[in-house]
Amino acid sequence: MAVKLAIVFGTRPEIIKLSEIMLLSKKTKGLESTIIHTGQHYDYNMSQQFMDELKLPEIDINLEVGSGTHAQTTGKAMIALEEWMLKENPGAVVAEGDTNTVLAAALAASKLRIPFAHVEAGIRSFWRGMPEEINRVLADQVADYCFAPTKTAVGNLRKEGIAAGRIHLTGNTIVEATQRGLGLAEGTAMAMQKLGLEKGGFIIATAHREENVDSRQRFSALISALAKLPLPVIYPIHPRSRRQLGEFGLMGEVERSGNITLTDPLGYFDFLQLSANSKFIITDSGGIQEECTVYKRPVLVTRDNTERPEILGSFGELVGCDEKRILSGARKILRNYDSLMRRLRRLPSPYGDGRASRRITNILVGGNG
Ligand code: UD1
Ligand code: UDP
């Protein structure tokens, strides 16, 4: 009898990081899957665009929970998922990462005694001020399968008392997603051409963390820093951040800067093409901190902590959301650029070999990974 998986996701990075698992679930003997989107992200360019580009299976159910407060999105998703699980009784529920969608899936499944599989388990910023940290810790506590991307993540889970038998070291599924995305992007991505950019002649910036873009002081500091950088900055802006930019009256500063180009959120191929051809990246994104280790570009992480410590001292540096530190981090990268790039190109990704999704599906089907 086949194991029936419910693969649950709600946001852009979850689609990307579960992409290979979705594809494998449709072609692995002994696995069947229902593809469930909670609808936490709903704009075409934050959601369906990635399903189309990566040629992912059709979404079977969209729960359409939409935006709201933390309790609203988590609660609505939990209620709708529970209803579906009671009817369909899947063999396991799979979710990835640390969003409200993940917490909803973890709580709904575990209380119905349906095995919950957490992809990217055990990563920790050790800062509970971050909503994602709360989601991760709770999801791991109730997970039957903790698929940890790194040895550090395994260690974090063990320290939290999670039994060794529930933990599987798999690598991070972002590696295969990035590799596949870069391959597919070749010949299809048009962003460099459309924006008139040359390899190495620009910086990519993204920002969407609640603690950065919902704070007037931190978001203003970021924009002031971007405006003073010595290269053009391409900033594909997350809808939350666009709203906050307006709210804080920062659009004028962006326009006056002369070097910042805001774009709508980009498709995966265009975004990978730009990132892989940029001089360096400034970001508070989780996924981008991992992807840069595949296409080998330095990142300045505009946060005070990171749950991805593997990149510190090599691909990444923490600079806070602080104007002076961002600018001195940028000067440091540019001063030693050629030797830094020689070093990064030689480093393997700390996030694995591109086979994490295969290991995960093997384990879910009853094998050893
Ligand atoms: C969410 C996740 C975050 C993840 C990010 C990926 C939580 C707590 N946060 O943050 O961990 O890194 O997704 O991008 O789960 N909006 C739109 N259209 C959309 C989606 C969002 O306009 O399609 C706007 C709405 O104004 C919404 C706001 O963005 O209120 C925030 O969306 P939400 O999903 O709550 O959080 P994100 O910041 O996207
Ligand atoms: N990304 C994209 N287009 C963009 C910005 C990001 O395709 O305009 C991709 C990026 O390559 C990465 C993922 O979205 O795979 C990261 O998503 P996000 O930063 O929203 O979330 P996080 O990873 O921080 O949870």
Rounded to an integer in angstroms, the radius of gyration calculated over CA atoms is 20 Å
The best one-word shape is globular
Name of the level-1 CATH class of the largest domain: Alpha Beta
* Residue-averaged pLDDT: 97
Keywords for this structure?
single chain; 369 residues; alpha/beta; Rossmann fold; 2 domains; seven-stranded parallel β-sheet; six-stranded parallel β-sheet; 17 helices; 13 strands; binds uridine-diphosphate-N-acetylglucosamine; binds uridine-5'-diphosphate
Give a verbal description of the structure.
The structure is a single chain. With 369 residues, this protein is α/β, with parallel strands linked by helices. The model has no long low-confidence stretch (mean pLDDT 97). The relative contact order is 0.13. The protein folds into 2 domains: 3-172 and 352-364, Glycogen Phosphorylase B (Rossmann fold); 190-346, Glycogen Phosphorylase B (Rossmann fold, 3-Layer(aba) Sandwich). It has a 7-stranded parallel β-sheet, sandwiched between helices. It has a 6-stranded parallel β-sheet with strand order 10-9-8-11-12-13, with helices on both faces. The chain is 47% helix and 14% strand. It has helices spanning 12-27, 48-53, 70-88, 100-111, 131-142, 151-159, 174-185, 191-195, 210-213, 216-227, 239-247, 251-257, 268-277, 286-295, 323-335, 337-346, 356-364, and strands at 3-9, 31-37, 61-62, 92-96, 116-119, 145-148, 167-169, 203-205, 233-236, 260-263, 280-283, 299-301, 316-318. Bound molecules: uridine-diphosphate-N-acetylglucosamine (UD1) and uridine-5'-diphosphate. Uridine-5'-diphosphate is lined by residues 12-13, 16, 206, 208, 236, 265-266, 268, 271, 285-288, 291.
